[in-house]
Amino acid sequence: MSNIVSSKRFKQFPQLMWILLFGSFITRGSYYMVWPFLAVILYEKFALSATHVGLILSSAAVISVLVSFVGSALSDRIGRHQLMYASGILYIISFSLLAQVNSIAGYALVITLCSIATALWRPLTSALIGDIIKDKGTRELAMQSLYFVVNVGCAVGPMLGLWMGLTGEQSSFYITAGAFAFLLVLLWWGFNQHNKLDKEKVVKAQQISTEMMDVDITTASVETGSQAQSKPQPKPQEKVTTKGGGVNQIIKVLVADKLLQCLILANILCMFIYAQMDSSLIQYLTRAEVPDLLQLISSMIFTNALVIISTQFLLLKLMANLSLISRIQVGLVLLMCSQIWLALNPLTLFWGWIGAIVVMSLAETILFPTMNVHIDRLAPEHLRGAYFGAASFYEFGYAIAPLGGGIILDQLGGTWLFLITAALTSVVIYLYSVLDSLPRPDFVEVKIL
User: Fold this and answer.
1) Is residue 444 part of a domain?
2) Which DSSP state fits 380?
3) What CATH number has the domain bearing residue 425?
4) pTM of whole model > 0.85?
5) Are 328 and 339 within 8 A, CB to CB?
6) Would residue 446 count as lying in a domain?
7) Any domain includes 1
8) Segment (H or E) for 443
């Protein structure tokens, strides 16, 4: 673990990985120019309550989670490329429509389309990294790097939007649509280049195999030759056997994995807690009419991303000798502290809000990339797409957060909201503490026909 971050590992990144990193930067940057201010737009345009805004956002997110799981599971059978193209096109269509809608029903529909595109794209990207990078250490660095550039985009996006006067402007959703159109062109080129390299490797491997067989024919006995022929057969046969797995059969495997079930529950709660920053906190500050609202929201998003990009690899090195579970527990303690800080911070104390976001961002820096690595280690190779699809159920926490947070805001207020999320963090800490004691299926015996 101590040598995860090294120049040698960066050099092992294939060309397609660098395209994913660049594409993630430009799309996330444009996305965060506008998306975090959606709750403000809905409030100012239609005077909706926190519960109603939360209902719109939560309904869209719940639908998208279900679509994400099915899509990610199917990607093991029909391929990542086609689904990534489809989700990218859906991004372009939905963000273009979002720049034009003028009714509550229109916003609800288009936000749902945006959420479906997002929920499909994220697990597909993570699974694709597993497909194109075989070395475990390099793959972990790739996932950390993806998370890093996403947050660079998050840091640049809102501040650039504020500087350009685009913050809260509906027409600025066209920028995100354009960014995804550009990314699809890059991906099309990258997939073609990657396929060419794969074909060249196959041709070389076949040439080497042919040369070795020629040597075997002239120098080896019939018995040795038959053994040499039998060695390459198991691996292709395994691929044929596992590739045909249906969604129902994959679900049976996931249902049998009790550790995965507990992990999903813990991370649903974790996402519910974290998502309050993106939805309920902004609604809380908007309705409280805090001074310099748009500047505060942009500053919080910028701070969140800046802390992540400045501490991510440092924390990775400092915590390299800790187990994944230990790292996550440290992050959860920090998350709990941030929620208590948000609960007690005075409404008019600008830098108090920023300080709480710093602590929450440190927690996020530890938790989020580690969650992806955790799933990658748990997943059998032939079910990687299904496992990342199952991990998308984490998004249920993110999905119900706007509605749950909105109800608590309307009924109890912001202080109680963040005290409740602090209490929920302690539940997550407990669930992670019992993970190792839970049974898992024997994947050697599981046959996906």
Assistant:
1) no
2) -
3) 1.20.1250.20
4) no
5) no
6) no
7) no
8) none
